[in-house]
């Protein structure tokens, strides 16, 4: 009833604006000033155009008021495809910032349709309505969490967040390889810093709690609710170190102390290729020392019944078999809660090697990264014997891609580059395709398919 009323209101507003001449190019003769020429003076073509416009508005308003909510929601997501060509004309970083601002202001469609039940799962005691998330790097400063979750992602990861604000590397630093469906970036952890992000997440958290309290009803307590501290979806916070910092562990510990209260999970990012020396922290001894210090910082804080947020490490795809064995050993020995596989690559897999932009320094993401990151994912699943939840990230642009990641060992998956190219309409498409893949192969749930290719 509320949805019908909102659509009826939209129709009435459109008609009101037609009557009051508030729509560009549409004139209502009954409200014309006395000095205006009479109707008969208008050309036949002008009268026909005006009549047709009014007719379309009335028909459109009538349609909006009668369609069901699911159909209307699908129409809104499909309509976003019309905007993608406009974004493609803009500078990549400007387009990125514009997208974040649009999501922050709620200028994006809201997913009202329930996810297919086959996509639901529980990880770390958190209930996910679907396993498709948005990777870190898009909403670096937690400006658009609510808007992005409303798009239908099962979870959103913000960051990387550094302790002290920093501008990152000089511009230009993002390059589109459109033909290959790829992007090269060398942003270098541009961040507003943990204080600004903490204030933003704190305000969002307070507003969400207030809304939940005011809308609580006796019947809702018996319903199975998905989501976490961010409301309808799960929120991850990705932590980074400052470029000039000499004590990496201290940076990550500071991030934990300041931001963990707002996070459903935390990520130690030691795999960006754009911060000098960062990837050295993936070595066995360095990683072990770092994880132990960060775990200790998290565990010494006061937590309620839900306990502390899970701690994950995000690794690079450019690792040797020995590197992977070391990381797996540390993850198992320290009972790490998860691994994200993977970050961007410094290699230039075909066909990107032939693109003139391939010579730009930075990390490559998108379709050309898919095989490399999936192979690393599968190897890590085998090395950890399926005991640690893995998030598959790198090159996913379809439901079939997401399914392959899951079969290779991923419990959850993340998008970024494909979302930048495809926009909001890609999200429901991937979820529908993923559900179809599971049903096609006889799986009753996501969990049943995890690591299927490794058995």
From TrEMBL:
Instruction: Indicate the segments forming the Dihydroorotate dehydrogenase catalytic domain, all copies.
Output: 120-438
Alphabetized UniProt keyword annotations: Flavoprotein, FMN, Membrane, Mitochondrion, Mitochondrion inner membrane, Oxidoreductase, Transit peptide, Transmembrane, Transmembrane helix
The answer to keyword Transit peptide applying to this record is yes
Question: Per the record, which residues fall in region Disordered?
Answer: 206-238
Check the record and name the InterPro entries matching this protein: Aldolase_TIM, DHO_dehydrogenase, Dihydroorotate_DH_2, Dihydroorotate_DH_cat, Dihydroorotate_DH_CS
Please state the pathway this protein functions in, per its UniProt record.
Answer: Pyrimidine metabolism; UMP biosynthesis via de novo pathway; orotate from (S)-dihydroorotate (quinone route): step 1/1
Family as reported in the entry's similarity comment: Belongs to the dihydroorotate dehydrogenase family. Type 2 subfamily.
Write the protein's name: Dihydroorotate dehydrogenase (quinone), mitochondrial
Please tell me the species this chain comes from. Answer: Glycine max
């Amino acid at each position: 009833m509320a949805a019908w009323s909102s659509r009826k209101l939209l129709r009435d507003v459109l008609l009101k604006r037609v009557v009051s001449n508030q729509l560009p190019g549409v004139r209502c003769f009954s409200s014309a000033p006395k000095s205006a020429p009479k109707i008969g003076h208008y050309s036949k073509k002008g009268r026909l155009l005006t009549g047709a416009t009014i007719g379309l508005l009335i028909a459109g308003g009538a349609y909006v008021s009668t369609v069901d909510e699911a159909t209307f929601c699908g129409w809104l997501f499909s309509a976003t495809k019309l905007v993608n060509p406009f974004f493609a004309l803009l500078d990549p970083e400007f387009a990125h910032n514009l997208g974040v601002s649009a999501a922050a202001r709620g200028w994006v469609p809201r997913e009202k349709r329930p996810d297919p039940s086959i996509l639901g799962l529980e990880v770390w005691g958190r209930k996910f309505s679907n396993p498709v998330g948005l990777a870190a790097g898009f909403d670096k400063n937690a400006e658009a969490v609510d808007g992005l979750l409303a798009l239908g992602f099962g979870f959103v990861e913000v960051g990387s967040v550094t302790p002290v604000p920093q501008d990152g590397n000089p511009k230009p630093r993002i390059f589109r390889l459109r033909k290959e469906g790829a992007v090269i970036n060398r942003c270098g952890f541009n961040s507003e810093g943990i204080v600004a992000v903490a204030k933003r997440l704190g305000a969002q958290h307070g507003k969400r709690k207030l809304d939940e309290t005011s809308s609580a009803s006796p019947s809702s307590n018996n319903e199975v609710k998905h989501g976490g501290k961010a409301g309808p979806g799960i929120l991850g916070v990705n932590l980074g170190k400052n470029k000039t910092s000499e004590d990496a562990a201290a940076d990550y510990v500071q991030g934990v102390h300041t931001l963990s209260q707002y996070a459903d999970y935390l990520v130690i990012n030691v795999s960006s290729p754009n911060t000098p020396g960062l990837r050295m922290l993936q070595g066995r001894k360095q990683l072990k020392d770092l994880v132990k210090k960060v775990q200790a910082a998290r565990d010494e804080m006061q937590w309620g019944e839900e306990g502390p947020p899970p701690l994950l490490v995000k690794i690079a795809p450019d690792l040797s078999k020995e590197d992977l064995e070391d990381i797996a050993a540390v993850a198992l020995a320290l009972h790490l809660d998860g691994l994200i596989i993977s970050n961007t690559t410094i290699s230039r897999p075909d066909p990107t090697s032939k693109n003139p932009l391939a010579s730009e320094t930075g990390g490559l993401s998108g379709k050309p990264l898919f095989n490399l990151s999936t192979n690393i994912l599968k190897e890590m699943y085998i090395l950890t014997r399926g005991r640690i939840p893995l998030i598959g990230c790198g090159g996913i642009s379809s439901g079939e891609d997401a399914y392959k990641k899951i079969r290779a060992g991923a419990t959850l998956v993340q998008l970024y580059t494909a979302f930048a190219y495809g926009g909001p309409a890609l999200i429901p498409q991937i979820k529908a395709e993923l559900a179809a893949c599971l049903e096609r192969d006889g799986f009753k749930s996501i969990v049943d398919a995890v690591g299927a290719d490794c058995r």
